[in-house]
Design a protein that fits this description.
42% of the residues lie in helices and 12% in strands. By secondary structure, the protein is of the alpha/beta class. It folds into two domains: 5-43 and 288-389, Alpha-Beta Complex (Aspartate Aminotransferase, domain 1); 47-282, Type I PLP-dependent aspartate aminotransferase-like (Major domain) (Aspartate Aminotransferase, domain 2). Strands 2-8-7-6-5-3-4 form a seven-stranded mixed β-sheet, with helices on both faces. Helix 8 (183-196) links the parallel strand 5 and strand 6. Helix 5 (98-110) packs parallel to helix 6 (126-133). The protein is globular, with a radius of gyration of 21 Å. The mean pLDDT is 95. It binds pyridoxal-5'-phosphate. Pyridoxal-5'-phosphate binds at residues 38, 98-100, 124, 171, 175, 203, 205, 235, 237, 243, 248. The site of pyridoxal-5'-phosphate has 13 residues, from helix 5.
Length: 399
Amino acid sequence: MKLSRRVRELTPSATLQAKSDAEKVRREGVDVIDFGPGEPDFNTPEPIKNAAKRALDQDFTHYVDTGGIPELRSGLAERFRRDHGTDYAPEDVMVGCGGKNILFLLAQAAFEPGDRVAIFAPYWVSFPDQVRLAGAQPVILRTREEEGFLPRAEVLERALSEGGLQAVILNSPCNPTGAVIPREEVERFAEVARRHDLLLISDETYEFFHYGNGPFASFAPMASQLRDQLVLVGSFSKSYAMTGWRVGYALGPRNLIAAMIKIQSHDASHTASFAMKGAVEALSIPRSVLESMREEYRRRRDRMVQGLSRVEGIRCLTPEGAYYVFPNMKGFMERFGFANSADLARGLLLGLGLATVPGLAFGMDGYLRISYAVKESLIQDGLRRLQECRDLPAVGSGG
Ligand code: PLP
């Protein structure tokens, strides 16, 4: 059957592909340690589950408002007011089926053919494809390992001088590098966006996974100066271990939020009514619960970085956020004769039973994304396999 050109040009999500490759090899009997997952290994906290159960028992199972249930929209507006001093009203907030769906609706509402949208590499796999699906063109800007993979406002400004841009998508803490944009750079980006009338999309899905000193530098405090140009995107998936619930949100210019809701009215209608009741409860989960999860991740990060740094040919920075490391594997690839990170990931899966995601998928070859959202005993075992590795199967295209 003939498929649309749109879909023919689309690459399947590399992270979901890595997950299914790992499962296939596991079914064949290999003892796989999965460093691929983009989701917390914790379970959803009990009070959140209980709120959803109560909603089901009370038959809160019918269609609800397309933009999300009112108490969730106002709860989010209130949380941002409390945490960042913003003055978003509930009408400036919308809820959808996870951050991924929110970003998709946003791309559909804001971009059109001919638009150019800046994205820093390494990037989360869905950004460029969502931009392309809206008919616009992703413009990939570089970060440097020597600068901790930090996106730089001056790089954006240089790109602006080389050709028009309508928007930039930033993601801090970053998937896949864990890089966190510091406050001064947040201000520089806001200033460049203001001067060039650029739409600034800040994906803050990993906001609670920040291991640096002081609070995470959200773009939210820039909302007053970028009123019509800033969209904040977030999700309940990672912070509250709610990936399967599919609840994400955006705060932004009212007409853009209304446009996204209009598209959602012809698409999913809304996310599950009772899942939103769980999300309302999540907003009042004590910070100490989130902090204890975060401290556990910090310990795992340190263990992972130390262990990787002991392997010949691997160089690994200590990222300040998210739950991924993005080690430089070039020496390791040379040691074992791999031509690119996709072949390397396959070699590690078949040879050591280690599932990772190749840097190529995130727009930067020579690296791997390794998730430490896995139990510490598995981290130890995986590191031991890498440290003791003397031989790996030759796989792939070699190109
Ligand atoms: N943004 C980034 C950077 C992510 O890594 C993810 C998930 O992996 C999302 C958004 C979307 O998450 P969800 O759709 O589960 O809210």
